Amino acid sequence: TEERNNIPAFTPSQKKRLEALLMPEEVIPDPSENLNFQELESSLVNRRKKDIVKIYEDDRENQLGKIERIITKFFVDRGFLEIKSPILIPIEYIERMGITEDKELFEQVFKVDKNMCLRPMLAPGLYNHLRKFDKVLPDPIRIFEIGPCYRKESDGSQHLEEFTMLNFCQMGSMCTRKTLENLIDELLEFMDIEYEIVSDNCHVYGATIDVLHKDMELASAVVGPIPKDADWGITKPWIGAGFGLERLLKVMHNYKNIRRASRSESYYNGITTNL
Ligand code: ATP
Ligand code: 9VF
Ligand code: MG
Question: What is the pTM of this model?
């Protein structure tokens, strides 16, 4: 503990505790303001208890559930069919996506047993729906899914091992870069999130259109077709984009760490539950 004018500065663990109690716009008062840790902690605990009671009195909605419902309505209103495909999928789907044992993403997959894994992406389920519904629905086909995805991650403030993906796609006519960029623009305009588009590459899709907010990737988007389509019985042009919902929440609420936006027992709507 550092002593200045007999006033103790906060220890690293005290700082950590205060940071968890603070909301993004709040700051830890200067230690020289003569507030001791216990007083500060208990006043912040009281504020956070009030915040949670206010949610309980007002709308009682979970931010991750709510953003899923809002985005679902956005896409349903624009003619996209809502899909819920399995979270537990065959490992063979991963290989069929072109993610073979030599690829980085293959190592990130949570395997459940010899044959099954937790899905790291939504594309396999959407590919299968596009193929099946091509015999059923009029052109162009528009579908989307929002749901949990799992990846083993090592790095911190923008990655979760359990996160929520939105993937929308269109197959058939009008699958142009313009249509894709218009949908992305309309969605992010609707969410009031600033973004820029940059070109990138990934081994699954080749050329991708990445959507960035400052230095953080919000989405990767692709203008098909791609050679891999044949392995899924897909023969028509398509466009699609995958967004991380917790990354959208991180931007909207100005969280320092994505964990505040995640499925969690430590935070409720970004407020610490350790009260
Ligand atoms: P990154 O390079 O940031 O790890 P990625 O390019 O591997 O992301 P994609 O496969 O393009 O991710 O997935 C689409 C979107 O899903 C990403 O743009 C991001 O918003 C979100 N996403 C991917 N992995 C994670 C994760 N581990 N935690 C939270 N969101 C994620
Ligand atoms: C872009 C991100 C292959 C025709 C079912 C749609 C897309 C999304 C990339 C995602 C991924 N691709 N996480 O495909 O929309 O799959 O890596 Si479809
Ligand atoms: Mg990407």
Answer: 0.96
